[in-house]
């Protein structure tokens, strides 16, 4: 009788552990499809991350800097870029500052908080990297070109983690 009770307790604890949201991740969930694929990057103690890409018209790098908030929201800190022509801001709007230093523009945001955003993986041979905790993840190799992904920071269960794919960084 005691073994049956012990087995049930272990089983219930295991099920709770398996389905409880315990793991913070960066989540990339494919949109505009009936069977979305989900990719994860594990979140460590580091709260800051960057997205670096090559602008398809200017052919120069753009660096977006972000931070994870206490509520798993995304705080946009700044964008750095070299040219204000097509697609890049030439002036600051409310709650923004624009500066120019060492050949680069820096658009800084005072308090731009996002729950999530959609990122499009273009089918062109230009860099698109997610940089976090000293690692660089090539999003064009991990995610499907021509697809859109809902990007967010969230806490998931072991069950969810096993259903998704882990993005691999480049060495």
Summarize this, please?
Pfam families: DUF1850. By secondary structure, the protein is an alpha+beta fold. The protein contains 3 helices and 12 strands.
Mind explaining what this structure looks like?
This is DUF1850 domain-containing protein. It comes from Ureibacillus galli. InterPro entries: DUF1850 (IPR015001). The protein is of the alpha+beta class. It is 16% helix and 46% strand. It is built from three helices and twelve strands; from the N terminus they run H-E-E-E-E-E-E-E-E-E-E-H-E-H-E. The longest helix has 18 residues, at 2-19. The protein is elongated, with a radius of gyration of 20 Å.
Number of strands: 12
Strand order of the largest sheet: 6-7-5-4-3-9-10
What multimeric state do the chains show? single chain
Number of helices: 3
Rg calculated over all Cα atoms: 20 Å
- Helix/strand-derived class? alpha+beta
Mean pLDDT across the residues is 91
Shape: elongated
- Return the domain count: 1
Distance between the termini: 54 Å
Percent range for β-strand residues: over 45%
Q: Could you estimate the helical fraction of the residues in percent?
A: 10-25%
Largest sheet: 7 strands, antiparallel
What are the secondary-structure elements, in order, as H or E?
A: HEEEEEEEEEEHEHE
Protein name: DUF1850 domain-containing protein
Pfam family, one: DUF1850
InterPro entries: DUF1850
What characteristics describe this protein?
46% strand, 7-stranded antiparallel sheet, 5-stranded mixed sheet, alpha+beta
